[in-house]
Automatic annotation (TrEMBL):
InterPro entries from the UniProt entry: Beta-gal/glucu_dom_sf, Beta-mannosidase-like_N2, Beta-mannosidase_GH2, Beta-mannosidase_Ig, Galactose-bd-like_sf, GH, Ig-like_fold, Ig-like_GH2
Coiled coil: none
Keyword Membrane recorded: no
Protein name: Beta-mannosidase A
Assigned keywords, A-Z: Carbohydrate metabolism, Glycoprotein, Glycosidase, Hydrolase, Polysaccharide degradation, Secreted, Signal
Domain Mannosidase Ig/CBM-like: 739-818
Subcellular location, principal: secreted
Signal peptide interval: 1-21
């Protein structure tokens, strides 16, 4: 049924209702039809939606994620699609101006109303709005038609005609080519973790807006909250009051003498302040002004684990002669977040920090350790990404002890609801413009298009306290410019100039001219700037490779698919911040079963190989198994190097064990790196962040993800949760020299005392009394954001008295302290089992004799818990597995046990289709089970 939304504005000054201000109808309420060019397909369509989703709903195509549909459905991407609807039901007023407002069209559309062409669009990331009053005049049976051209075909056509083709050798190609020529989600054309559907449709909400005379419609709201005097990228003076700068982008004509009123309310609806804005300006369809809010009037917003997420509501109202014209309310908060890239100070040098520049975030003036991962598009089809899905995903983020996600630069700008959830949960979103792994065109029309996209999105999301940073794009300075210099030195200055044109001259001003609260970097991985001068025409001069020997600059990324060096600590980069690093693994059998036919469930079946896109085929070629085989081989080699290899009689059980084995290597490798980077907080590099690649899956495939498409946690997410605990103990082993140390590392903001118990066992669980300090209790004090050594020994000498293949060191830490901004005293514990032999495949594992007890099966409120006990040997990489039919996660997993030890964990159910029966089918295994039949 069609329901029209009548929005009245209630004056904050107490005036009575004004007359009809706006009539806003979501286009989702129309009856849409989707057709192909020859009308052989004509099915119900939706807004927001995409052609693939509507075709699947109408059963024209099967599930796009099933089997090899990534390849089979290319015809959908290569077809033009038309969405049509009648506007007859709308009762459009003839005394009003009528606008079409689209918050997102994907991508090449031609829009007609009453058979009159209104406009064409070519940017998925822009908001478009069109006055359609004339087209509707005298139109008896009004219709709207939106024709979407095939993005891959248009990109190819542009490539044929483009005079401004960026340098070819720099362009990483996945499946469909020429992605860099168009402003559409770059991973829609394929990526090394995802499919290539290149969908088309109205992917964001859209509206028909009717405005009677003198009324306005707010199409975008900018709120910028910063400390007086604050400048982008520089730490502000925290004693200054807050400035709340507001700016409304509107449709309609802003009255010349309009005022702006800004009211701030707290979460309980209590007014904090309400004042008329100063410095009001009206220009370019926007009205702007600001107020000052005293520091003491509001509470700060903090990220997860660092304090509370205090939220406020800001209402910005346009007032004309005492009457409210229009108002807009945004939920927001008070915080400063800065990426500090300033030179290392004398004070820092005095603390033992190596010279160079800083590269860390500061929240409300405090350094903190950024713990997290990289967030890719959660689905190949955005319209089916639900609030529930993101809430569950972000719950996993906070449960995983993460406080920051890097929103990777070639999906889409996140919709507001995703920032809203991050605001509530305290997840900082390092956000990026959508440019990745390519140089990009610099034709004027391309730059103008990008400028509009950037300004719209910067203004749209700036009110969210979770917004942590804007980065120009992914792997540009460190990879694209590096490749250009390496392979095309003769033209390097051209490529660098073009890069600066886009990333320093277009994107940087889009941030600096609309926000003072957010930092900007041109590239995700960067050595930072040589100079920053906000008054200069080009404020930022990049450092590039202008380095002084022995100094440390910038953030790092690290990928090494030669697993022989995976645990060689000297192969890890030393930098100030690790913004991505990783290795791929298989998803669980349960995830594979969602998407792959039973006969294809083996490691190198055609379907599984072709769903593995590391390494990408680089083209539309569906017979290129060579690259996939290489990626599958890397996983196999790593397992063979470090663990007993699965060898089960039942092929499905064997496949499942192999999937798990690849996850164990992945988790082991990431844990080693995270422990290393975190220890760097107390080392000369003063390393203050690790964000691994990648948080979650876009579909069911071998990827770097820690969370599978359904929400199921891989080994990685459990192990990351563990190693991101506030205070950790971890070993650091040079297996060539035998030098073994252990450090306690803390990201608390206060110094804490505690003990680490160290006990050597053999694999049967006997304490090795012949090892010096076979068992010992080491007291420690670890400073705020610091590390301290608790063990120094050598495994070569240890090997003289002990069979290293039959030895395990259990490290057990306990301390008490306060989480930042938390008055309650918490107990922090952490465990690490170290083995002085590189390959567990050569360790003298024994059957741990695992028992599993299900407690409180009938408890429907807190759910059951699971107690695991080892009875006869050390249980390595203990794995609780939940069956198909239930999605959720255990509180902990992948843990180790010595005989007699138990561990009890709960399970958080996200989706249960078994009516509780799943509990009976939970299983437990350990590394030992790989070699049992
Ligand atoms: C980096 C990322 C992504 C990529 C990942 C895995 O290159 O920035 O572009 O998917 O590693 O290869």
């Amino acid at each position: 049924m069609f329901v029209s939304l009548l929005i009245f504005s209630l004056s904050l000054l107490g005036a009575p209702f004004s007359s009809l201000a706006q009539n806003v109808t979501p286009l989702s309420e129309l009856q849409w039809t989707l057709t192909n060019p020859n009308h052989s397909i004509s099915v119900p369509g939706h807004v927001p939606s995409q052609a693939h989703l509507d075709l699947h709903d109408a059963q024209v195509i099967s599930d796009p994620y099933y089997g090899l549909n990534d390849f089979n459905l290319r015809w959908v991407a290569e077809t033009n699609w038309t969405y049509t609807a009648s506007l007859a039901s709308l009762n459009l007023s003839s005394n009003a101006t009528t606008w079409l407002v689209f918050n997102g069209l994907d991508t090449f559309s031609t829009i007609s109303v009453c058979n009159q062409q209104i406009a064409s669009t070519d940017n998925q990331f822009r908001q478009y709005y069109f006055d359609v009053t004339k087209a509707l005049t005298g139109c008896n049976s009004p219709t709207i038609t939106i024709n979407f051209g095939s993005a891959p075909n248009i990109a190819d056509a542009l490539a044929d005609t483009s005079l401004n083709e960026p340098w070819k050798a720099s362009q990483l190609n996945y499946e469909f080519p020429n992605r860099w020529l168009i402003r559409k989600e770059q991973s829609d054309f394929g990526w090394d973790w995802g499919p290539a559907f290149a969908p088309a449709g109205v992917w964001q909400p859209a509206y028909i807006v009717q405005l009677s005379n003198n009324h306005l419609y707010v199409r975008n709201t900018l709120l910028d909250i910063y400390r007086q005097g604050q400048l982008n990228n520089l730490p502000p003076d925290q004693t200054k009051p807050w400035v709340v700068n507001a700016s409304l982008d509107v449709l309609g004509t802003i009255p010349q003498h309009a005022e702006l009123r800004i009211e701030i309310k707290d979460a309980s609806n209590k007014t904090v302040t309400s004042s008329v804005a100063k410095n009001v300006t009206i220009s370019g369809g926007a009205i702007s002004g600001s107020i000052v809010v005293e520091d003491s009037a509001v509470k700060l917003w903090w990220p997860n684990g660092l304090g509370q997420q205090n939220l406020y509501f800001a209402t910005v109202t346009v007032v004309n002669s005492g009457d409210t014209v229009v108002s807009s309310t945004k939920r927001t908060a008070f915080r400063t977040i800065v990426l500090n890239m300033e030179p290392i100070s004398k004070r820092q040098l005095g603390q033992g920090i190596k010279n160079g520049n800083n590269w860390h975030f500061e929240i409300n003036g405090h350094e903190f350790y950024a713990k997290g991962s990289n967030f890719i598009p959660p689905d190949a089809f955005w319209p089916r990404v639900t609030t529930t899905k993101i809430q569950q995903l972000f719950d996993s983020v906070t449960k995983g002890n993460q406080n920051m996600l890097r929103v990777w630069a070639s999906g889409a700008y996140q919709p507001d609801f995703i920032y809203d959830i991050a605001d509530e949960k305290g997840i900082l979103l390092w956000s990026e413009f959508e440019f990745s792994d390519s140089l990009y065109p610099v034709a004027q029309s391309f730059l103008d298009n990008v400028r509009e996209e950037a300004i719209y999105n910067v203004r749209r999301v700036n009110h969210h306290p979770s917004l942590a940073l804007w980065a120009g794009g992914n792997e540009l300075e460190n990879l694209e410019l590096y490749l250009a210099e390496l392979y095309d030195p003769g033209n390097y200055s051209r490529w660098q100039k073009e890069y600066e044109t886009l990333f320093l001259n277009v994107l940087l001003p889009a941030v600096y001219e609309n926000s003072r609260s957010i930092s900007y970097i041109p590239s995700s991985t960067t050595n930072g700037y040589l100079s920053l001068n906000h008054s200069a025409p080009h404020p930022m001069v990049e450092r590039y490779n202008n380095e002084t020997e022995g100094y440390i600059y910038g953030d790092t990324d690290h990928y090494d698919y030669d697993s022989t060096v995976a645990f060689n600590l000297s192969s890890y980069p030393v930098g100030r911040f690790a913004n991505e690093f990783g290795f791929h693994s298989m998803p669980s059998l349960q995830s594979w079963e969602e998407a792959v036919a039973p006969e294809d469930l083996h490691f190198n079946s055609t379907t599984i190989q072709l769903r593995n896109h590391h390494y990408p085929s680089g083209s539309l070629n569906t017979t290129n198994f060579a690259n996939s085989t290489k990626g599958m081989g890397e996983m196999t080699i790593a397992v063979e190097l470090y663990y007993p290899t699965p060898d089960k009689a039942d092929p499905l059980a064997n496949f499942s064990s192999w999937c798990l084995a690849t996850q164990i290597f992945q988790a082991d490798f990431y844990r080693s790196q995270i422990a290393y980077y975190r220890r760097g907080s107390g080392m000369p590099e003063r390393q203050l962040g690790s964000l691994y690649w990648q948080l979650e899956d876009i579909w069911q495939a071998p990827t770097w993800a820690g969370i599978e498409y359904s929400g199921r946690w891989k080994m990685l997410h459990y192990i990351a949760k563990d190693i991101y605990s506030p205070v950790i103990v971890a070993p650091y082993w040079n297996y060539t020299t035998g030098d073994l140390t252990a450090y306690v590392t803390s990201d608390l903001w206060e110094s804490v005392n505690g003990t680490v118990d160290l006990t050597w066992y053999d694999w049967s669980g006997n304490v090795l009394s012949n090892v010096t300090n076979g068992t010992s209790s080491i007291p420690f004090t670890v400073g705020a954001l610091n590390t301290t050594k608790v063990l120094q020994t050598n495994t070569e000498s240890l090997g003289k008295s002990v069979d290293l293949s039959n030895a395990v060191l259990k490290m057990n830490l306990t301390t008490t302290g306060h989480l930042p901004n938390d008055k309650t005293l918490s107990i922090f514990t952490h465990e690490f089992f170290y083995h002085p032999i590189l390959s567990l495949g050569k360790a003298r594992l024994v059957d741990p004799g695992l028992n599993l007890i299900v407690n409180g099966n009938n408890d429907t409120t807190s759910g059951p818990t699971f107690t695991v006990r080892a009875t006869s040997g050390v249980s390595a990489w203990t794995w609780l597995d939940s069956p198909s039919g239930v999605v959720g996660n255990f509180d902990g997993n992948g843990f180790w046990l010595v005989p007699g030890e138990t561990k009890t964990v709960g399970f958080d159910v996200k989706n249960d289709t078994t009516g509780g029966e799943w509990v009976k089918n939970v299983t437990v295994s350990s590394l030992w089970d790989f070699s049992t039949p």
